[in-house]
């Protein structure tokens, strides 16, 4: 705008002063684009088409323009001084003419480009054919200046061009290379610096084959965290700055250079590489490691002092450390992503929370526990209660339920005969099992460690009562077992075939039939033979589980119990004098009954060969008869 005002002002001021000349006179020139004005000379970008407007008198007489590298007075010959191509002049009227020019770079010994014009006879009016400038018709002459001076130091009708740093093809190659390096540094800054030492160790130990090799190659460089960071940032800044300079030199316009470099760096140097490296940073970092090491070497004089200062101020970089809560959240996120099964997630999170939970969270209250009195006798009724509740370990108390004396294990009763009515105290004193007492604030981790020592798998929980004015004392409030701790680890209830409750904390009752063996204690005085309750229970379980005809879908369990109490038990004593009385079945003869051998032995002879073998308890004969009915 400043140049426009100067040229137009000069043109308007000079126009009235001079009389109409007999030859074309140029008072001013105006290019549509220019870089700057230096020493009153317009500086144009080189090798670019520029729309040039020329102002003067008799501009319609000019057919072509060109430029010389030296200056001579106006109307001097420019035939041999021209150093550029000629450009067509397109007159709009007698005062204005335009042309499109493109100027090369100035050589070292050239000062500027000076305007030359060509006036042709075809452009002269017929009335002026005898004018005094017919001697220059069709020749190239210096335009000079219409302002009244022909001094060779007057540069008002001249141009200078900017010089580029390097050839165009070299600039284009360098710009492409710098865009690549800008994207690489930006991507590596995100990809490598986001991989901390802990994560690299994890990948190196538990990744795929390629990931292990990548992590092993990257880890030594990543150990120098601040030096790597300084190298990548210095490289990125250096590349982006060089890009802006080259773009400015290439476009010749600062605004275009800023816009072009901003768009290019944002798209090619930031968004795209960071999007790629955020997902494939490990592989890209490993494959370009040689380039990273090269730039670490090149920038070492600058990067090392900065990184050393950062190490001293910020301290040594450590890997990511996760708390138990963060690890739990991380595992749950992996489960949502499908990389960890739900059961595996429960076990891991349960193990992480083991030391944060106490026995008070998982214990069975003492009021809900099945217990035996120390003074009780192990008769049939007591044994029935033990087996019906389905517990393996039974606490034994004396007088008060909070006064625990011992723990009775069901396997301790293997050799106990209910008819002997052995006192519970006798069995407890014989095995002399120790009991474990813990406070309700004991965490499950410590409780598991105690159980692993093998002293016992059941512990009793006490709490410290400090209420009131009395001295603190301990109160027994519940019990905890190894199974309770394991259930907290796996985050699920362990239910076996004898459990009545599925959850001892919320008292969820399991939908299972409770076995009641009391009816086996009733004896029929009219029966042929009396069976002990233990043998009846064994017979009941054998028939219900091993003989298909007595399965629950064919006969109700309670009916089967009544069936065993009926008059169906017989006793056969071997009589060496009566073979017929000793025979249960005859070969080849039809029978409508089945026999279950409960005690003793029987001799079986089968086949035409008369093979003989002995049959023992719980072997059934004639089961095929039952299937017929």
TrEMBL record:
GO cellular component assignments: plasma membrane
Pfam family, one: CNNM
Domain CNNM transmembrane: 164-344
Glycoprotein keyword on record: no
Transmembrane domains' residue ranges: 168-192, 226-246, 252-269, 290-310
Stored InterPro entries: ACDP (IPR045095), CBS_dom_sf (IPR046342), CNNM (IPR002550), Ion_transp-like_CBS (IPR044751)
Keyword Membrane attached: yes
Gene Ontology MF, one: transmembrane transporter activity
Key words, A-Z: Membrane, Repeat, Signal, Transmembrane, Transmembrane helix
Homology family: Belongs to the ACDP family.
Full protein name: CNNM transmembrane domain-containing protein
